[in-house]
Design goal:
The complex is a heterodimer of chains A (about 100) and B (about 500). Chain A has about 100 residues and is mainly alpha-helical. Chain A has helices at about 5-15, 20-40, 75. Chain A has a domain at about 5-40: Histone, subunit A (Orthogonal Bundle). Chain A is flat, with a radius of gyration of 23 Å. In chain B, helix 2 packs antiparallel against helix 3 (about 60-75), helix 9 crosses helix 11 and helix 9 crosses helix 12 (about 385-405). Chains A and B meet through helix 1 and helix 2 of A and helix 9, helix 10, helix 11, helix 12 and helix 13 of B.
Chain lengths: ~100, ~500
């Protein structure tokens, strides 16, 4: 699998990574080399094996859905880059909204 | 107060086996206190860590408070537990409230977790005292601890070399005598490989043995928390403290007990020699292979027998691992978006730009690489060819291990193809770094336990590790065999000379 800069930009967009041009140029050949190696997975003969599951969780193991103690919201908000005491604050993302409409 | 203690010395109590150290603290008539042990550990960190960079944060106040609580229990006639007063280093991807948790990433700048990691909480419950958080490859992605936003850690046997990774800080801390015990995490070898390169014992438990609650998720079907120590007996003591089911981690399972079985003998032991783990023809692999062969000769002389084993899928374990781990990582690391915690990019005017720029500024190169590999492997049109196929290969690999353990009790291999490499030596070649993981990733893919123990030194005086692999739930047996091998071979932890340096 040859991974060119266009593909790197596409995947970076899917991964929400804003790479610089220099990063894209550096990473494309590295990913090409890595995929040249990992591509052998596609040729493995695994017959009809099911995809592995680790410690499948049996329904009997699930706890009852009961209310219990939760984290203190103030302790959680303390780690937020921006908050107003009750809510996380992020940049406006629905375009300009005039006062009164929101 | 500190002046009253000699931090180094042949018979300092901090260098005792953990059981003996804790026994002295638990003995009300013995003058040794938990506070003295922690003070000594802190003094050693102060003297040695500037040259090793094993610690990202020293938690002296916390450790001394925990030690004082242990001493108070002893005075009150209560038992503080089997790890009473033993200083513990914690990899900085395990949550300790009150201390920063960085995962060696800029993206978690300023973050302090609100809850305890279950494994850390249980170690403290057994009497251990946390002296600091240790350096790692960012989000545990790496094999050298060079991918840390806070600079590389150094190998105590040669500071020009890496300590391995990703639990390199924990390994260096134990090897240099700064803490007798450390917690690490192992997704593809991150406990065993640094243990080998730093000449100590490191154990990756069976998937489900130890709770991951409070461990920052990297690849959830592979991650395990485990002990790092100077001997198998010490590693067992820490594993016993942290193991067990936890309602906060639904993948934990009841497992066989971990008590030592004194009846374990090398006489009659059937150990598997795996063709695919042989190092003949591997560049630089001669010394590691010779060290393993030396242990095999010891085993044979003691009455053990070698069984030839082939695990054909091991040859594909690197490609399988480097699909599965990045795929799961790309999903787990989606949470770092600059909204709820950690770093946030400045001067952005849209939410999309906030996510993308925060992640570009906050993540290091290796983390970005793995997110891109994983995102691509899971993307529309490729997921079946990569992730699903890789997961099916894991099923087959596990079947091959099951069949192997029908024929033998344990498998034996080197832990790494070579001893510690130089800082910077492989930094520009990610694929070369990935290929070094050939001897460790299969245990994670199969979910089985494996332990690395010291098995001698190279001609340059660098440690080498021997790895024992067992069937699921067999950590107790692996530790028994590890102890017998250490007794029979004479190999074990040898303090590096850096320990006496100032």
């Amino acid at each position: 699998m040859d991974i060119d800069e266009t593909l790197v930009r596409h995947v970076a967009q899917l991964a929400r990574l804003e790479l610089t041009d220099a990063e894209v140029a550096g990473i494309a050949p590295q990913l090409s080399r890595i995929f040249a190696h990992v591509d052998q997975v596609q040729g493995l003969d695994v017959g009809d094996a099911d995809p592995a599951t680790q410690s499948p969780i049996a329904m009997d193991d699930l706890r009852r859905d009961e209310a219990g103690p939760t984290l203190d919201p103030r302790a959680v908000l303390r780690n937020a880059p921006q908050h107003d005491g009750a809510f996380l604050v992020v940049p406006r993302f629905l375009g300009d909204v005039e006062d009164g409409e929101g | 107060m500190l002046g009253a203690f000699t931090p180094f010395g042949a018979d300092h109590p901090l260098d005792l086996p953990v059981a003996a150290m804790a026994a002295r603290v638990r003995d009300k008539d013995d003058a040794l206190t938990a506070v003295e042990l922690v003070q000594t550990a802190l003094l050693r960190i102060e003297l040695l860590d500037p040259g090793l960079n094993a610690f990202l944060c020293v938690t002296g106040e916390l450790g001394l408070a925990q030690a004082a609580a242990v001493d108070a229990k002893v005075q009150a006639g209560e038992d503080p537990g089997p790890l009473a007063g033993v200083p513990l280093a914690v990899k900085d991807n395990l949550a300790v409230p009150g201390a920063p948790m960085t995962c060696a990433s800029k993206i978690l700048e300023g973050y302090s977790p609100p809850t305890w990691a279950t494994s850390v909480e249980r170690a403290i419950g057994a009497g251990a005292c946390v002296v600091g958080k240790t350096n790692l490859d960012e989000f545990a992605m790496g094999s050298s601890t060079e991918n840390s936003a806070f600079g590389p850690s150094r190998n105590p046997y040669d500071p020009a070399r890496v300590p391995g990774g990703s639990s390199g800080g924990s390994a260096a801390a134990v090897a240099a005598g700064m803490a007798p015990l450390a917690l690490g995490s192992d997704t593809g070898g991150s406990i065993r490989q640094p243990a080998a390169l730093c000449g100590i014992v490191g154990l990756k438990p069976t998937y489900g043995r130890v709770s991951r609650s409070g461990l920052v998720a990297f690849a959830s079907s592979l991650d395990q928390v485990g002990p790092m120590a100077r001997s198998a007996a010490d590693a067992r003591a820490l594993l016993q403290a942290i193991a067990g089911t936890d309602p906060l981690d639904a993948t934990t399972r009841p497992m066989p007990a971990l008590e030592p079985d004194e009846s374990t003998r090398l006489d009659g032991l059937r150990y598997g020699t795996v063709t695919e783990f042989g190092l003949d023809g591997v560049p630089g692999g001669e010394q590691a292979q010779a060290a393993v062969n030396g242990v095999r000769a010891t085993l044979d002389a003691a009455g053990a027998s070698s069984v030839a084993i082939s695990l054909p899928l091991v040859t594909s374990s690197i490609p399988v691992y480097y699909i599965v781990a990045p795929a799961e990582a790309s999903s787990n690391l989606a949470r770092y978006d600059g909204v709820r915690y950690g770093r946030r990019a400045e001067d952005v005017d849209s939410l999309q730009a906030l996510y993308a720029r925060t992640r570009d500024e906050g993540f290091g190169d290796e983390v970005k690489r793995r997110i891109l590999i994983g995102t691509f492997a899971l993307s529309s049109g490729y997921a079946d060819a990569y992730y699903k196929k890789a997961m099916a290969a894991r099923t087959r690999l596990r079947e091959q291990f099951d069949a192997a353990f029908e024929q033998c009790d344990v498998l034996l291999s080197a832990t790494t193809p070579t001893a510690a490499f130089g800082v910077g030596e492989k930094a520009d070649d990610p694929l070369a770094m990935y290929l070094c993981d050939i001897l460790t990733v299969a245990a994670n893919l199969a979910g089985i336990p494996a332990i690395s123990i010291p098995c001698g030194m190279t001609t340059d005086g660098l440690p080498l590790g021997l790895q024992l692999w067992g069937r699921p739930g067999s950590e107790g047996q692996l530790l028994d065999v590890a102890e017998r091998i250490a007794e029979a071979s004479g190999h074990g932890y040898v303090a590096p000379s850096v320990k006496g340096a100032e």
